[in-house]
């Protein structure tokens, strides 16, 4: 059964009172996926870390424990979600350990080579110009830096038919791997891991130590 359009739009960008409810539900539902992403990212003390589409901000506190005494940046274009994340991470924000910014991954508000570790979970479905988003992520990744992307692959069309195409675009694992390779990343692996809402895939990629895109 296809999900209602208004639900899909709230999943992309929660807004208002209903968005707050969606955000609280997402906090519980996405926790297992975010935990997997954090484990794969292998954050070390002092790493410069970015969570793209941080949403409710639960991951920010966990990442801050791992990269202490570094700073974790969370980016989200939903004001509703940033408010939730701000309340959740109030103490860490006050300490300067967590910073929340508005924005989208096709125009990242950071200088080149800003981050050692970048994660993003359940976001690629919403990227209209997907090549631009990935190019921006490549730009802000430091030489030798690592990226973890969590997503539901659509290998047989079973997912696509249940979500409105006006909001969601699902891709195969091969398509996503090829897009990251074309942007200059070295794709190390596409891993599969289950979580309560169903199977997910995890792209592990890195920018080579020279920091230059392959010709």
Q: In terms of topology, how is this protein built?
A:
Elements: H1 5-12, H2 16-29, H3 31-41, E1 49-52, H4 58-67, E2 72-76, H5 79-88, H6 90-94, E3 98-102, E4 115-121, H7 130-140, E5 141-151, H8 173-182, E6 186-195, E7 198-206
Parallel strand pairs: 1-2, 1-4, 2-3, 4-5
Antiparallel strand pairs: 5-7, 6-7
Helix pairs in contact: 3-4
List keywords for this structure.
single chain, 215 residues, alpha/beta, Rossmann fold, seven-stranded mixed sheet, 8 helices, 24% strand
Protein model, in words:
By secondary structure, the protein is α/β, with parallel strands linked by helices. It has one domain: Vaccinia Virus protein VP39 (Rossmann fold), CATH 3.40.50. It is 37% helix and 24% strand. It has eight helices and seven strands, in the order H-H-H-E-H-E-H-H-E-E-H-E-H-E-E. A seven-stranded mixed β-sheet has the order 3-2-1-4-5-7-6, with helices on both faces. Helix 7 (130-140) links the parallel strand 4 (115-121) and strand 5 (141-151). Helix 3 (31-41) runs parallel beside helix 4 (58-67). The chain is globular. It starts with a helix and ends in a 9-residue tail after the last strand. The mean pLDDT is 86.
Task: Kindly summarize this structure in a few lines.
The chain has helices at 5-12, 16-29, 31-41, 58-67, 79-88, 90-94, 130-140, 173-182; strands at 49-52, 72-76, 98-102, 115-121, 141-151, 186-195, 198-206.
N-to-C span: 44 Å
Low-confidence stretches: none
Q: Which strand order do you get reading across the main beta sheet?
A: 3-2-1-4-5-7-6
Beta content: 15-25%
């Amino acid at each position: 059964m296809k999900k209602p359009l208004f639900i899909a739009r709230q999943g992309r960008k929660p807004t208002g009172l209903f968005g707050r409810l969606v955000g609280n539900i997402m906090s519980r539902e996405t926790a297992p996926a975010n935990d997997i992403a954090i484990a794969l990212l292998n954050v070390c003390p002092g790493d410069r870390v970015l969570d793209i589409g941080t949403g409710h901000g639960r991951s920010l506190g966990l990442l801050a424990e791992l990269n202490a005494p570094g700073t974790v940046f969370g980016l989200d274009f939903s004001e509703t979600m940033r408010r939730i994340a701000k309340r959740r991470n109030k103490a860490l924000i006050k300490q300067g350990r967590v910073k929340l910014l508005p924005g989208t991954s096709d125009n990242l508000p950071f200088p080149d080579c800003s981050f050692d570790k970048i994660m993003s979970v359940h976001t690629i479905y919403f990227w209209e110009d997907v090549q631009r988003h990935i190019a921006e992520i490549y730009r802000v990744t430091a030489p030798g830096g690592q990226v973890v992307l969590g997503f539901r692959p659509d290998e047989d069309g079973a997912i696509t038919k249940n979500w409105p195409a006006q909001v969601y675009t699902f891709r195969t694992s091969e398509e996503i791997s090829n897009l990251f390779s074309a942007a200059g990343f070295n794709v190390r692996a596409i891993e599969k891991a289950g979580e309560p809402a169903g199977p997910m895939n995890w792209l592990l990629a890195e920018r080579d130590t020279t920091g230059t895109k392959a010709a």
